[in-house]
Amino acid sequence: MLTEDELNWIRHVLSNYKPFEISPSYFYKMTTEIERNGNKGIVRKELDELRKKMIKVTPQELLEFRNKNVRERRGIYNFSGIYIIHNCVKDIYYVGQAERIFDRAYQHFVINAGNAEIYKDYSLGDEFSISLIPLENTSFSSLNELEDNAIRAYDSFKNGYNRMPGNIMDKHIFKNADYEKAANLILDKIKGTEVFLSLSNNRKRMNYTSSLFSELKLPRNIHFLLGFVKMIKEYQKAKK
C-alpha cells in the first residue's frame, strides 16, 4: 500500500479544499457547453457537407450491411465514426457513435435492440435516411466530441430521438497536477486488487472510495473524492 511519506504528501495536497469552490470539471463542462452551443450552426454546415459526400443508406441497406461479405463486395468497410438517422417524414434526427459503425447503427431498426421510438416510427412506415460519417473525415479529435457536437447541431436531444445528451467529459479534470498525481498514486496501489475488480457500478465505487479514504485518514475533500470515483470508472472502461 502507500508509504507513510506518500500518505503525508497526499494529505497535505488535499488539505487545501474549500467547500464552496467550483470544481474544474464543472467549470470546463459549463464553458464547453456554451462554446459548443454557440458553434452549432458551423458544425451543422460542416456535417451537412459531409453527409452529401459520405455514404448514405436506407434502413434496409443498413440491415444488409451487417454482413461483412455484403459490405466488402460493395467496397465498403467498417470504420469509427457517427451515424445520423433522419426521419424524413417528421424531420427529426438521432445521432449515435460507434467504433465499428456497421455493428451498431442497424440495431435501431431491429425490435428491442436500439432506440425504441425509431423502431416504432420505422415499423409504422416512416421513411428514414442514415448518414455514416467517419471520425477521420471531420475536424473533431474524438468520438465523444464529434457525437456531442452533432447532437447539438441537429437538436436531436431536445427535439429528436436522442434521450441523453452527448458526453462532454472524456476524462475527469482535477484541480491541479498534484491532485492528479495523488489520484494516480492511490489508483496504482488498488487497481490490481480483488475488491477493485468488483466495483461494477457507481454506488460500489463511491462506497469503496469513501471507505478507503477514511481508512487512509485523508482530509475530507469532496471534489477529489468524486473525481477519484470517476477516475476508477474511466480506468475500468479503458481496460475492457
Automatic annotation (TrEMBL):
Signal peptide (from-to): none
Coiled-coil spans in chain: none
Cited InterPro entries: GIY-YIG_endonuc, GIY-YIG_endonuc_sf
Database matches in SUPFAM superfamilies: GIY-YIG endonuclease
Residues annotated as domain GIY-YIG: 78-163
Protein name in the entry: GIY-YIG domain-containing protein
Species the sequence originates in: Bacillus capparidis
Taxonomy of the source species: Bacteria, Bacillati, Bacillota, Bacilli, Bacillales
